[in-house]
Amino acid sequence: MSHVIESSVMTQDFERIEQEVALVSTDQNMMAYVILDSASDIKFANHIIWRGSNAVNVLEGYSADKHRASIGSNKPYVTVNFERLSIQAYYPLNSNSRFSYSNTVELIYLEYDIANLLSEASESLFKRFIEIWGLGAIVLTLFGILLHYAFIRPLTQLSRAAKNIDKPDFNTNIICVTREMTTLRDYLNLVKGRLYRSQKRLNDAEQRWLFAVEGARNGIWDWAIATGDVFVSDRWKEILGYQHYELDNDYSVWESRLHRDDKSQVLNTLQNYINNQHDEYESVHRLRHKDGRYIWVLDRGKIVEWDELGRPLRIIGTITDVSGDVKSQRISVDKPNHNGLTDLINREVLADQLYDLQVLSRKSGQFSALLMINLDNFKLINDALGRQLGDRLLMQIAARLSGSFSNAGTVARLGADEFVILAKNFGHDIDQANKRALALASEVRQLIGRGFTISEQNLSITARIGLVVFDGIESLEPQVLLSRADSALEQAKDSRSNGCAIYQPDLDQQHVQPIKLQSELKLAIHNKQMSLVYQPVVDHAGQLNSVEVLMRWYHPQFGYISPRKFIAAAEVTDYIFEIELWALDQVLLLINSLLQTNANVPVMSLNISSRHFHQDHFAHVVMSRISAAHISPKLLQFELAEDIFKVNADVAKNKIIELQDYGINIAMDDFGGGSCGVHQLQGISFSQVKLAAVYLEEIEYNPETFNIVNAVVEFANKLNLPVVAKQIENKKQLNLLTHAKCTGFQGYIISRPLDQDDITQLIKTQLSLSVAP
């Protein structure tokens, strides 16, 4: 139209414009179609009445501003007016015409009605929506029906079946049309099978547990901590003399029956276990019987349930009546001022039992066994904690042994720290009997080695066991069997025996009765049977580093007695204090004589037993003797075993620091032997640590042993602890230990132990002892 108007204006053919406008007017939706000049006056219009009028006055949708904007940009402007439901358009005409009339028209303005078009489109869209919605509803209905039969219905049936999975009417004959539902159904069947097998195993385990408990004749208790409810079994009630229908399920049923002297300790032990301060709950105490008397019980428990915060909710335990075993030990816990434990067991009764056991073995043709159990370091614990707590420890050991092995045979205490188990029915074959006896001994050692809690102190104690296996044919006197067991016990104290040894006939030739040794020790120093020898310790260059002082005992009847034997016998008595102080005095005299010759005196190292070290007066006594001799404490070194930390570790550490402050060197013997926790070494600067001799046994043949030695030495070096390798017997061992970076060496390959004259000569001349490969 713009082109028509422009061409018509150029040719002055206004009639053609009139025709074109009239033609446009035939469209009923064309609300306004006008041609305007620059003053917005209407020159041509689809309605003749508008001609000559100003568009601002007659056209409601017209905008003069948009008119001028379109002319200014020479671009059409089209917009949709949603209020009037119309399209408004401004089309500028070519204003560069050379004809003057062209200045009279410059814009075509039109407004087109779209109300009918929108109405038609809305009706069409609504019809289309109805068609689509109807089809969608049909599809959704079909999909829902398919979903119900394919998934929801079988899933509901499977869920209903799962609720009855542990019941006999469980049924999974469910039609599943999808692979997933079929897999779920098959898995449910699999779970049903597993559940059935688990329930069967659980029922079987429960039956076996009940059988084991009934066989052991233990009473069971089950305590719900939060509610205070306590279930006690019929056997628990029977032990205390009650019928199964008596006693309420309440915590007070147990606590109210505790003996008043035991109550505080038992409750503290139980509370400490609940607070996770101990690994297990175990106590030996008295409970009041229905008839008013008190019985001794071994009480054990274990936490079996916790809440989400890790707090204990439930404990299950057992009690065992050990009254007879505790009373047989004659442990006087009711008398705080008692004189301690003595060998009060009726040996005539034990002898009768040994006679009867031999007769039984002879008739049945089966082997029996005598186990003699010796507690390691009991004397040390007894001295450190006091005899009353030592009695408590023995009581718990007796109760634990009785509770575990009374069915296997007889349990008795032979001496202060010795127990005896008589066991029968070990089979008809001697090799098999030996294996079973060793297995029983190993079980006993593990049972004792679990540790004990006495007055809130955790005690660790180990045991050595000597065994005699017999069939009764020899018909030996009970004293002979006990003597053989004692010989085996001495052999069990060897580090290579793993703590257990079976009697062999050749042991009699090597054995001296400990009781005989103890009586002879009394006269050994007085009769000048004791002597000292001195073994040098050298560095890599062979220079004398220190000297270890060793005790020797030559007996007129038995000859030279092994230090391991007579020192062990001395530790059982108080003679250990006397002989170690005698050794200290002799060393002080030797140092004094060397100093008078202006000799360069090396450090003299004395072995101090753990029992002597833990005596309250030890530090004061040795310091007094050193001061009286006017000898520098720096010339002395005390070698201590790792087991000094087994009891009162803090006290031991403080005493070591006290001795070091005084100037005495402190060394640790048998380093890495496993008797001491690494954390207990913190804060102590040892002058030496002597590698445990057990590491040298296989170092020549076993690369793993050498790797372990390397690791132990490296660990010690990181702690700035000089490592001395002792008991070196050949050059191969020496080479390996040199490569392991030990800082000191001691053994026969370096020098045998020297008497006083020889060590004096060596020190005066300062000879170099070669350690070269």
Automatic annotation (TrEMBL):
Keyword NADP: no
Regions that span the bilayer: 132-151
Stored CDD domains: EAL, GGDEF, PAS
Domain annotation EAL: ranges: 514-767
Stored PROSITE patterns: EAL, GGDEF
Keywords assigned by UniProt, alphabetized: Membrane, Transmembrane, Transmembrane helix
SMART domains the record matches: EAL, GGDEF, PAC
Occurrences of domain GGDEF (ranges): 366-505
PANTHER family referenced in this protein's UniProt entry, alphabetically: BIOFILM ARCHITECTURE MAINTENANCE PROTEIN MBAA (PTHR44757:SF2), DIGUANYLATE CYCLASE DGCP (PTHR44757)
Protein known as: GGDEF and EAL domain-containing protein
Species name: Shewanella metallivivens
Taxonomic classification: Bacteria, Pseudomonadati, Pseudomonadota, Gammaproteobacteria, Alteromonadales
